[in-house]
Every structure is written in C-alpha cells, then in structure tokens.
Task: structure prediction
Amino acid sequence: MPNNKLKHYQSVSTFMLSAFVLFALALPASAKDIPSRKPSREGISQERLDRITDQMNKAVEDGAMVGGLGLIARNGKVVYRETYGMSDRESNKKMEDDTLFRIYSMSKPITSVALMMLYEEGKFFLKDPVAKYIPELANLQVAVSTADGETSIVSDGTITKTIGEGDKSKEGQTRQPARQPTIRDLMLHTSGMTYGFFGKTEVDKLYMKNAAMMAPNSDLKKFVSGLGKLPLQYEPGTKWHYSVSVDVQGRLVEVLSGMSFGEFLEKRIFQPLDMQDTFFRVPKNKLARFAQMYSPSAKGLVPSPAQSSYSYMEGATFESGGGGLVSTAMDYLKFSQMMLNGGELNGKRLLSPKTVELMTSNHLAGLSVGDNKGVGFGLGFGISLDQGTVGEAGSTGTYSWGGAAGTKFWIDPQENLIGIFMVQNFPPVVDVGEKFKVMTYQTIVE
Result:
C-alpha cells in the first residue's frame, strides 16, 4: 500500500474509532432499552396522555399515593413514561425512571415463564403430579372443613376479601383428595393450596402458624418440606384459589434445572433480556433507588414498618417466585415486550410463539377467578375473556396481573400495547393503577 494511502487509511480508522467511542459514551445506561417514539406516530394522542398525567398528579395531591410511575408502549415503542410525586417523601427523593419497586405478585408471570422454558426442554408434562419431582409433596391430604364446607376467596392479585370460614365442626379432619395436584394446577392456582393471610379458615390458620417456612431466612427446599405437612384447602382442580403454588413452581425450577431459582432467573431470563435491575435482593449500590413503602393510617399514608423490607435486603435467602422480586418499570417492559413478541426480544428467544399462545389461553374450563366476571386464567396470567362482561375499557384477549403494593401491568395483543403502573402502597386502599389502565385506552385514536 502506498504511504499516502496508508496515512489516509489510518486517519479514517482513527476518526471512525473516535466517533464510535463518542457514540458509545452518548448511549443511555442500557443501550437495549425499548426505544421511545412520538405518541402520534403510534396512534396515541399526546393531549389525552396529558389527562393521565394530570389525574396521577392529582392522586398525589389527594394523598392516594406518595409517588408513582406510568409507562405505555405501543408497537414496540415507548409512547409515555412519566413519574409522579416522590419515591421517598421523608428523604425528599423524587420518583425517577429507574426507581426500584417491590413488584410482589408481578413476580408470578416471570416464574411461570421460567418453568415453561423447562417445559420446552422436555423436562415435564403439565399433567404430571407435582410429587413426581418434589417428593415432599406426595400424599397431600385435603381438609374436610374447607373442601366440604362453604368458603371461598376473591382476589386479582391486588384486592382481596374473604367469604366464610368453612365448616368449623369438621376442623382437624382430613381425607385423601380425588387426585394429587399437577404442575398445571400450580400454574392455574387450582392446586388446592392457599396463602393463609387472606382468609380465616382452618387451613389459613395452619399456614399462618407455619409462616416461618417462607421467612426471609428460609429457602425453597425448606418451604416445600413444611408445605407437605399441611392439608390442602380444596380438592385439586375444583376451584381457582390464589396461593403459594407459584413458590412451589420456583422449587420445581430448581429441581428440574439443577440451579438455584435465583441463578436460573438471572442466567436464563434477566441477562438475555438485559433486565439489569430485577433481583430478589437489592444490591447495596442500588439501595438509594429503592422506593419507600407506604401504608394507610388515620393520618394518611405513612412509611411501612422497616421489617416489610427485610426480605429484599442482602442476607435474606428465601427466593419467592410468588412475590419476592424487585424491578423497574423499564425492566418489566422488556419482559412484557418479550411476551408480546411471541417469546423473543432483541434476538434473544426465551419461548416459542406456541408456548406463549398456550400460556395466554384460558385454562379454567368453567371455573371463575373469584368474582371477577369476564376473566379467565392462563399459565401465570389473568386473561380477559369478554371485555363487555369485564365492564371497563380494554380489549378481549389482554393478559395481565398486579402486585400487592398496587403495581399493575397488562399486555394487549389486539392493540399491540403494554401498560405498566408502579406504586408502593401496601395495602392499596385506592386502585390508582386501575384508573391509569382505563385512561390509557382513551388515548388511542388510531
């Protein structure tokens, strides 16, 4: 190569390298974030989005929440991301885009995806008894007082009420169920298990008495060992009943994969999707971004007791797939967009489209999700079966769930839309997230 051409080549190469470095430095913290786009280009009215912002800021002013975050994506682009109020009122911290939230039961869909990834690898059939892989849960008995009595629970992951206590005259009696719970039962909340703190039945009381099996210093193996000694509240497959069954799914992931549950999530879901802010324990270098939890009182919303955060601190060991994850709105958007894309995001495929289709189909076959009319349940998600029966704005076929602190997400394939609302009110006395969801639909103009 002639000398002058070599110098020119070196000069161009140096310029291109410098430009690349400058470009890289200019990138946001995560170059794989879902891109933003002007709302009007995706059929969304900016003027109508402003209505949402006004309503959410009013909710802060009225004391319905200390702070929150709303995010809407359509056609794979973020068209709305706004913060409201404070993430920590006492420390005077504003709500930020990267605030970390306890997502509670929004952990459940992530756990179900993890289990279905192993399903795709031929590790099990959905119809398999859980005890085939977790022998501690073999020969579960069913409590006569609740299986043969009249009691039920109503829940959508965020709002719960208890109806009845069962036949108290039969407490202490158990019998063999017609069949043992299957893996599909775990995913549908038809396993016959419960949570304990939602109800006042004999079985609920036994769960509360043995609450240490899910304590921050426990683990999933100890948990299923303790669970195997407690009776089922209902006959498997006969009733949808919100329960610890998703935490059992986490133990199944461990048994089937040979990894700890947290390790599997990190390696197989969080890293491929670039979910850098989703974990069971908040790292010390990210604690400043962890939102304060608030609880209702006669004086309005006040900081929740410090112990409500112990399970999220370094040193805790229980990895709750049913409600133990911390995340950001953008991280959860990546997970949601992967689902809406049919199991893939940015060239990383976690599930096949047919598996996503299976997970987002109604599996309840005549059973109801509490008293939620027009709603069914898939493998880890609530499913809107008939929007007219649901009675609020939305689309039939939308799949979703919420968290105990008022967080909410939904995925609407019909509108190619994802909505995420983050807040930290426990328990949520006002469902601000539902208003956010309803108002999202009035922004769609094309």
Notes: The chain has a mean pLDDT of 90. The first strand starts at residue 67 and ends at 74.
